[in-house]
Amino acid sequence: MPPRRRPPRPGALTELPPLLIVRKILLLQTIYYVCATALVLFTSLVAGTAFSLDLIFSWGSVRGDTTVGWMLGLVWMLNSFICVIFLLLIVSRSKLIPDFALTIHFIHLLIVYFYTRSIPRNLLWWSLQLASAALMTFAGIWICQRRELQPISFGALLGGGGSSADSGGGTRAGENGESATLLNAAEEDLENGFASVSRGRGRGRNRDGGGGEFEMMPIKESDESST
């Protein structure tokens, strides 16, 4: 007998092959930095400050004592909210969202470490990363679950909404016609039943004679007179 195969364990490796997982992570990480660069560049031009890579890859730029630091914090939170849309389009599975969201922020931590050659020591930067990861995770799970729970439209799969509506209208018209036919047949049966009952009563009266009227027979008084 051939050996039995154990069922695969639930997880990301059973949902997607490893090479596809790596491709999705690289694609999401690229989109994460492209959106962040575009937002930071636009904000720098509006604020009139010089743009540099330190605004993106340096943990020292996110500070609570400067306006630029708070502005960068809001930009990174907006960037996480935008990336939720790409998580929906690329991952599309609610139970895989936490893995990809945390992986994006972990890779960002490694890039910041190699860029600055030091571990981030700014409390605001760590709080920003936790808030960004939480927003991306919970918002991604919520929007993916809403997509997974949407009802499947079989009419669109079988031939479009218009044809299903036409067929539904034809079915309703057929049902209304059938119900009207059945109602007319029931009324005719009821009338025939009353007619048959009346005919039966008429036949009974004819059998008795006199149209159903009975005559009273006189009582003979011969016995009383004899006594």
UniProtKB/TrEMBL annotation:
<dbReference type="Pfam" id="PF09801">
    <property type="entry name" value="SYS1"/>
</dbReference>
<comment type="similarity">
    <text>Belongs to the SYS1 family.</text>
</comment>
<dbReference type="InterPro" id="IPR019185">
    <property type="entry name" value="Integral_membrane_SYS1-rel"/>
</dbReference>
<dbReference type="GO" id="GO:0005802">
    <property type="term" value="C:trans-Golgi network"/>
</dbReference>
<keyword id="KW-0472">Membrane</keyword>
<keyword id="KW-0812">Transmembrane</keyword>
<keyword id="KW-1133">Transmembrane helix</keyword>
<feature type="transmembrane region" description="Helical">
    <location>
        <begin position="69"/>
        <end position="89"/>
    </location>
</feature>
<protein>
    <submittedName>
        <fullName>Integral membrane protein S linking to the trans Golgi network-domain-containing protein</fullName>
    </submittedName>
</protein>
<feature type="region of interest" description="Disordered">
    <location>
        <begin position="193"/>
        <end position="227"/>
    </location>
</feature>
<feature type="transmembrane region" description="Helical">
    <location>
        <begin position="96"/>
        <end position="116"/>
    </location>
</feature>
<keyword id="KW-0813">Transport</keyword>
<dbReference type="GO" id="GO:0006895">
    <property type="term" value="P:Golgi to endosome transport"/>
</dbReference>
<dbReference type="GO" id="GO:0034067">
    <property type="term" value="P:protein localization to Golgi apparatus"/>
</dbReference>
<dbReference type="GO" id="GO:0005829">
    <property type="term" value="C:cytosol"/>
</dbReference>
<keyword id="KW-0333">Golgi apparatus</keyword>
<dbReference type="GO" id="GO:0000139">
    <property type="term" value="C:Golgi membrane"/>
</dbReference>
<dbReference type="GO" id="GO:0043001">
    <property type="term" value="P:Golgi to plasma membrane protein transport"/>
</dbReference>
<feature type="transmembrane region" description="Helical">
    <location>
        <begin position="122"/>
        <end position="144"/>
    </location>
</feature>
<feature type="compositionally biased region" description="Basic and acidic residues">
    <location>
        <begin position="218"/>
        <end position="227"/>
    </location>
</feature>
<feature type="transmembrane region" description="Helical">
    <location>
        <begin position="31"/>
        <end position="57"/>
    </location>
</feature>
<keyword id="KW-0653">Protein transport</keyword>
